[in-house]
Structures are given as C-alpha cells and as structure tokens.
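Quick one: structure tokens for this chain, please?
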Amino acid sequence: MFGYESGGKHYSGLWHPQLEGKADQALGFHDLLEIRFVHAFRHHGVSLQAIRLASMHAREMFNQAYPFTCKRFQTDGKAIFAIVLEETGDESLLDLAKKQYAFKQVISSSLYRGIEYATNNEAQRWFPLNRSRRVVLDPARNFGKPVLTKTGMTVEAIVSAWHAEEKNTKRVASLYEVSVADVEAAIQFEQRTAV
C-alpha cells in the first residue's frame, strides 16, 4: 500500500496515503476502504501489478485520489480491468474483463454495502456492521474513529467500560445512556476487527 524496497528497487504504493506526512504508517478513512478493495481483488487472484495499473487508470478516468472507493468504480471498473488485461495479459483478469458476473462477484454489494457517498460520488461514511447502522466510521466525526451513530460515543469507550463492568451489557448501557443494542454493536465491531 505505502510502497516497498526489494532487491535495491523501490516500488511505489498503490495510492498516496490519506495522512501522508502526518503520522508514520497511519491509515485514513479512504485508506481503509481502498484496502478492502485491494484485499478482495487479491483474494480472487488479481496480481498487484494489475491492481496498480487499474488504480492508475481509474484515478485518471475518475479524477479521484481513491478510485476504488469512488461510486463510479461499481460500473466503470469492468472496463478499466479490460484495459489492464490488454496491457498485462494477466490471466486472472480474463473473467473480470469478459464476464460481468465475475466482476460483480469481486465488486459485490458486500464491498459497497454500508458505504454512503457524497454528491461527488466519493465515499463519505462507512457503516461496517452487516445489517446495522449503529456503528459508523465518518471522517467528520471524532477523527474517523468508530463511534455509535446516534450518540457519537466511541466504540473504544463502550468496549472498555464493558470489560471494566465485567461484561455487563445492561450496566454499560445504563451508565452511558445508550441502548443495549448499541453496546452489543460496539462489542461486535470490536470483536470483528480484533481477528
């Protein structure tokens, strides 16, 4: 993601980090979302070279710093991978470029599920729990830390209290004046990301 050195040669990152120069190896909101997409492509056998070229083409086409999280990628990404296939001959891209269902498998609704977009089609906030909008990552709220959607209370504070209160969900809900379901969502989020 941030680039690396190998055999005396420098390989640039797939994109410029959102917080570049502000903190060593820190991840911003858009970095996290881009990582989800790269992971999905890698999981389906797409090479880093092909992903790098697709990212470059998408950045140019969409005029977006973080092209995989741009809403247009949902539809135009297939054409981008077709261009990359011609340039690289990467066999893993053959299904992506020629068969719409294979592309949809990688760029499935699960990757876009929970992401809300601004009017410029750029990702604005992310609700990471399936079928729940109780936890949100929003760069405009608490520096993008995961928070409870309704109250803005950090997931970290809720989970810390839950551990301090001997995992008594009802007690934590009462202390923070939030619902039991909010406490459970915070715990679910924390447990999911701890893996």
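The chain has a mean pLDDT of 80.
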